[in-house]
Amino acid sequence: MSENFSALSKARQSYKPKxxxxxxxxxxxxxxxxxxxxxxxxxxxxxxxxxxxxxxxPVVSFGAGKSKVKxxxxxxxxxxxxxxxxxxxxxxxxxxxxxxxVSKSSVLYGFLGGPSGLENGKxxxxxxxxxxxxxxxxxxxxxxxxxxxxxxEEQFQxxxxxxxxxxxxxIVIIGGDDSNTxxxxxxxxxxxxxxxxVVCGCPKTIDGDLKNEFIETSFGFDTAVKxxxxxxxxxxxxxxxxxxxxxxxxxxxxxASHIALEAALQTHPNVCLISEEVREKKMKLAQVIRQVADVxxxxxxxxxxxxVALIPEGLLEFIPDVGVLxxxxxxxxxxxxxxxxxxxTAAKVEKICGWISxxxxxxxxxxxxxxxxxxxxxxxxxxxxxxxxxxTEKLIxxxxxxxxxxxxxxxxKFSALNHFFGYEGRCAAPSNFDADYCYALxxxxxxxxxxxxxxxMSSVRNLTKGVEKWTAGGLPITMMxxxxxxxxxxxxxxxxxxxxxxxxxxKYFAARRADWAKTESYTYxxxxxxxxxxxxxxxxxxxxxxxxGAMKV
Length: 553
Ligand code: FBP
Known about the structure:
Elements: H1 7-13, E1 30-34, H2 44-50, E2 60-64, E3 75-80, H3 88-102, E4 107-111, H4 115-119, E5 123-125, H5 128-134, H6 153-166, E6 170-175, H7 177-192, E7 198-203, H8 221-242, E8 246-251, H9 258-267, E9 271-272, H10 275-280, H11 285-301, E10 307-312, H12 315-318, H13 320-340, H14 345-353, H15 358-366, H16 369-375, H17 392-405, E11 416-421, H18 423-426, H19 432-450, E12 456-461, E13 471-476, E14 481-486, E15 489-494, H20 504-518, H21 534-537, H22 542-547
Parallel strand pairs: 3-4, 3-6, 6-7, 8-10, 8-11, 9-10
Antiparallel strand pairs: 1-2, 2-13, 4-5, 12-13, 14-15
Helix pairs in contact: 3-5, 3-19, 8-9, 9-20, 11-17, 13-14, 13-15
The structure holds 1,6-di-O-phosphono-beta-D-fructofuranose (FBP).
């Protein structure tokens, strides 16, 4: 172990993650029960046509019992894909221990730097010594991550060559919605070409938007939000001590507001915007600003010129007119990228306004130049706008300032500071929940690999109960898909799970936010605890407790 490891990470290394009962006796002692045939969430005919080999297969669940498959040394490759999320190393540890439970001669290859490592055959062999150093550690640094999208025939052929060279039984792609879409597409291609390697996925993302009945949460959400909530709590205490600043905190989460909502449930801010609500109510940017300024004015009238506001990073995309602008920009940039290369922001705006609708051009022109430039940045390899680079929190502060200036009855002060919490939480040492959950997901993937379950994602459920009551199984990835417009074309992708306004987490928040606006109901969650009383060290999120009925609204 390197001397870079702190006393905490050394001590943490010896934590033994717990496993669901069905997995406790090793991958060879797991019996598989098949459910009914499945359908995709929508666009069934189109998805079926795109995935003729892997569409419609059943959900499977694991129970204790003898496997029908004979013991053999497995050769598995693993890829970490997309944004970092706490617990990735434990997924790898789960796969490692799972395949070693089948045979001591099993081999785990780690592809370097994300899907491009698979495509280009860049890998390391993960042996027991290497694995030991990363157990229960945050980060993805054992093999690093990347956002390469695997989509061309040439890329797929290169993956086949690598897979054949290493004689892989399975490839496990640990990723979010886009990366698991990648896994499904690759698995389908392999099967069509008669390649025996299966491709499986694991649900990762701090954003919390990869979930459904079978995936109760994506890993990393728990730890990341706890980390942000600790920082938000610290800021709240500072705000309440100094009583002179408003703090505007943008939180990661891409499109979905799960992180902002969960952080609000953990800390009780004066304002928390929820993008999905803004979209549902068809609010214009000016209305959103007015709503925030109203709270600032309300508190100022009580002599309180301070407060804390949480802002989801995807907010702008959900303000209907700005959302339309963003998708028109994405379409225009996909077709005319070269023509705007090297132009300054003003010239770019001028050119682009010729390719988008008049309404969108008008919205683009009223935005500050900094935000215009950020909105016109290139999309990521999956065609997503890079919301983490848009300084929405600064835009809101500026616009609230202007709004308050136009209120003759506003006699308070508005001194605002901005923060962005995102990267601070993605590589935190996994909470006990994420350490256990990730290890179980990885171990589940080893069972999927052993049983040759192509195009499946690991599914571990019953997460609000103790680990001994967790259940494990596999979920066909095609079941989660729909067709979406990406980078100017229709693509099959896993449907994002956004915040539901009739869901319990939002209802819990909505019932309390008016009170939180005017009072200092702040709670101070403090740092994640790895040891200590269960009710402190093993707590899960409000979101999962409310969604799974373990807590009342
Ligand atoms: P994934 O969807 O790949 O898990 O990434 C999540 C995320 O952390 C988002 O919350 C954020 O918008 C984005 O990654 C930032 O991307 P990058 O790491 O490329 O800056």
